[in-house]
From TrEMBL:
Organism of derivation: Paenibacillus sp. BIHB 4019
InterPro entries for this protein: DUF1989, UAAP2
NCBIfam families: urea_degr_1
Residues covered by the DUF1989 domain: 21-182
Name by which UniProt lists this protein: Urea carboxylase
Length: 216
């Protein structure tokens, strides 16, 4: 297991230009300007913030887990990670992280994956894929369901075993832990604050996250 990489931010909450609480199961879609810094705060701990990134001027150039992992030669995301688009272009760089490790392999929950992972009667439950779709539909001039892409699971603990398998393990985050990233260009961020009731990552208890933005 890779070491946890903890870097605190010098930014003060009172100086943020934007603040919003995203309740569990809710979505949020927002454009970052070049140089702006986004912090996601895990308010109550062990929540999963499923997040997608797009080049706001070329939405088809979305976040790529493969380009990001290959670029840094590490499967986990933390401070120093450059989150890259399909084209290889940097979208955002993680510049502070008090959690220390985030997943980008596990994907987001969907009605289908809930039936496979947990039980068939989970089909009707809320899931991140539906939240992503709802948010994308609000900007249908620019985004369609074709823009659903691989995502980051901030605060989610998905250890990769020596054999290459995935484990959905107990969370490693805690109340108030955060991750902070700086945008390289105009970047659209799409968050689904996971409503997952079946996952030990969030102790079977989905909770709110907060987003804060600074201009630099
Ligand atoms: Zn989810």
């Amino acid at each position: 297991m890779a070491a946890f990489n903890l870097i605190e931010s010098p930014r003060k909450v009172a100086e943020a230009v934007y603040s919003k609480t995203i309740l569990a199961g809710d979505g949020w879609m927002h454009d970052l300007l070049p140089g702006q810094v986004l912090r996601i705060v895990d308010l109550e701990g062990n929540q999963a913030a499923d997040t997608l990134f797009y080049d706001a001027d070329q939405p088809e150039d979305h976040y790529s887990a493969i380009a990001t992992i290959a670029g840094q030669a590490n499967v986990y995301l933390t401070a120093g990670s450059v989150l890259r688009a399909e084209s290889g272009k940097p979208l955002v760089t993680i510049i502070a992280d008090t959690c220390g490790r985030h997943d980008t392999i596990g994907g987001s929950c969907s009605a289908q994956s809930n039936t496979v992972r947990y039980a068939h009667e989970k089909l009707h439950m809320h899931n991140c894929r539906d939240t992503f779709m709802l948010q994308l539909s609000k900007r249908e001039a620019d985004y369609t369901k074709r823009d659903l892409a691989p995502n980051v699971n901030f605060f989610m603990n998905v250890p990769v075993t020596a054999e290459g398998g995935l484990q959905f393990a107990d969370g490693v985050s805690a109340p108030g832990y955060y991750v902070e990233m700086q945008s390289h260009g105009r970047t659209t961020v799409l968050i689904s604050n996971c409503p997952q009731l079946n996952n030990p990552c969030n102790a079977y208890n989905p909770t709110p996250v907060q987003v804060l933005i600074w201009n630099e």
